[in-house]
Design brief:
mainly alpha; 105 residues; single chain; 0% strand
């Protein structure tokens, strides 16, 4: 008897297929777009770093500029993360206390 699962058995922990395939396609398209933009960002960063190393008069100045750019990136990341958490925590539309059907005592 083999420890491997036979191909006929379906694992029970798999999630059911999404009801809306278009939503799945949209999420995949957005994920591809984010990965592509991340690659472009890394490429531009590497090109900028090479130009900075070639054009700057010394490594100390290059290090200072790199530290400033890194600090700006960290601040940008933290602001974006905080903003996305606020959006996720935002209360959904709740009915007001006086707008529902009133009960009589």
């Amino acid at each position: 008897m083999s420890a491997a699962r036979s191909s006929r058995q379906r694992p029970t922990e798999l999630a059911p297929p999404p009801a809306d395939i278009s939503a799945l396609r949209t999420r995949r398209r957005q994920a591809r777009r984010r990965r592509r933009l991340a690659r472009v960002d890394v490429g531009l960063g590497v090109a900028g770093a090479l130009m900075l190393l070639i054009a700057s008069p010394g490594l100390a100045i290059t290090g200072l500029i790199a530290a400033l750019v890194l600090a700006a990136c960290v601040v940008s990341f933290l602001v974006q993360r905080r903003r996305s958490r606020r959006v996720a925590r935002a209360p959904r539309a709740r009915p007001r206390a006086g707008s529902g059907a009133r009960r009589r005592a």
